[in-house]
């Protein structure tokens, strides 16, 4: 099977320098799922080359023309351009911290190069909302993304919260009446807020959920534990300490 050209949208997950002027870019594509591409000449010191690397910042949403060969681990990009030009995500620290957190979390869950257009559109939609969000919506978007992302990977949380079922068991991913016999659970306000977040369908609704800085930090920490329980070799999130500091 030879290399064929395809048009696809892509969301940049991470970028690694390669040689003097090139990059290896991991992209979550709409057509092919997660893919790695060698992009040559974008780090050259010439006036033209110097501007090209900006396209491959994590969270960039691009229109791509790519060579695709399933037998290759590293394909090439023929053409690239902005699908969406951010107003805030690259230039403002809180929005950028949320975007980088989302990209790292997504990267740790995406292991196989399988097409998942629903997940692509969910991620794209969250990034577009992030770019226009301020205040409470922006501060809560990382929690919204963390709680809804598992739906696309088969370990979603079941929102069966009631006044009696008030313990969120992070191992089981559901609420229970009895305190679990292990330390991985949420209770009281943390469990209630998790249930409210699971009910949110559109990020605009996050404006109604006022949380203080310390509470949000603790809940994000619990989300990291939840993922570590369900995703093999998940490890820890390097972006989380930064996110916890900048979100107010």
Task: Characterise the protein shown here.
Helix content is 36%, strand content 22%. Helix 2 (93-109) packs antiparallel against helix 3 (117-132), helix 2 runs antiparallel to helix 7 (240-246) and helix 4 runs parallel beside helix 6. With 248 residues, the chain is α+β, with helices and mostly antiparallel strands. The chain has seven helices and eight strands. It has two domains: 1-85, Beta Barrel (OB fold (Dihydrolipoamide Acetyltransferase, E2P)); 89-242, de novo design (two linked rop proteins). Strand 6 (167-169) and strand 7 form a beta hairpin. The strands form two sheets. A five-stranded mixed barrel has the order 1-2-3-5-4. Strands 7-6-8 form a three-stranded antiparallel beta sheet.
**The CATH class of the largest domain:** Mainly Alpha
The structure class reads: alpha+beta
CATH H-level superfamily of the largest domain: Recombination protein O, C-terminal domain
Q: What is the oligomer described by this structure? A: single chain
Major beta sheet, strand line-up: 1-2-3-5-4
Largest sheet: 5 strands, mixed, barrel
**What would you call the shape?**
globular
Helix content bin? 25-40%
Low-pLDDT segments, ≥5 res: none
